[in-house]
Amino acid sequence: MDSQSPRMVSEFSHTDFSSPHALTEHCRLLAFCLVNLDTSPANENLCTMLLGELNALDAALDLPYAVPASPYPFDAHLYDDRPLTASELAEQCRALAHGMLQVSEPWVRASLGFVLWERINTLRGTLDAV
Predict the structure, then answer these.
(1) What is the pLDDT along the chain (130 residues), one digit of tens a residue?
(2) Can you spell out the DSSP letters for 18-76?
(3) The dihedral formed by the CA atoms of 19, 20, 23 and 24, expressed in degrees to the nearest 10
(4) What is the three-class DSSP state of 114?
(5) Region label for 72, one of left (φ > 0), alpha (ψ between -120 and 50) or beta (otherwise)
(6) Would you say 113 and 100 are in contact if contact means Cβ atoms under 8 Å apart?
(7) CB-based contact 60:18 (threshold 8 Å)
(8) Angle, vertex CA 36, rays to CA 24 and CA 125, nearest 5
(9) Do 103 and 112 form a contact (C-beta atoms < 8 A)?
(10) Are the beta carbons of 22 and 69 closer than 8 angstroms?
(11) CB of 128 within 8 A of CB of 89?
């Protein structure tokens, strides 16, 4: 790299990677990749990685933690922040309901059910706003 090239430095370079903020950011990046990836074997690997990060996050949330100065450096263009349309919300609701039917673990079903309830409420609000 020549001296004129800009140097990329992650804002997490001096961060505790076991902190809830860093783990949350890892989960968000993995989820983004998962949603935008079409190949099945890679999806399974990303899901496994995401589950590992979420398990670490669950453990980290039980410990005291400090809020970093800039907790989410990748927000700039990672997600499309536009509100979802009613049909997109309905599609998510169908996917969550389907997932609930496919899963046998009670805690997973309960969590999917809660997210489904949130999505249905959001869909209702979207329809009421029209």
Answers:
(1) 444 444 433 444 445 567 777 777 777 777 777 666 666 677 777 778 888 888 888 888 888 877 766 656 566 666 677 888 999 999 999 999 999 999 888 888 888 898 999 999 999 998 888 7
(2) TSHHHHHHHHHHHHHHHHT---HHHHHHHHHHHHHHHHHHHHHTTS-----SSS-TT-T
(3) -150
(4) helix
(5) beta
(6) yes
(7) yes
(8) 70
(9) yes
(10) no
(11) no
From residue 73, how far is each of 39, 77, 119 by CA, in Å?
A: 27, 10, 27
What span, in angstroms and rounded, lies between the C-alpha atoms of 14 and 75?
18
The token pair that represents 103 in the structure block: 């899963």
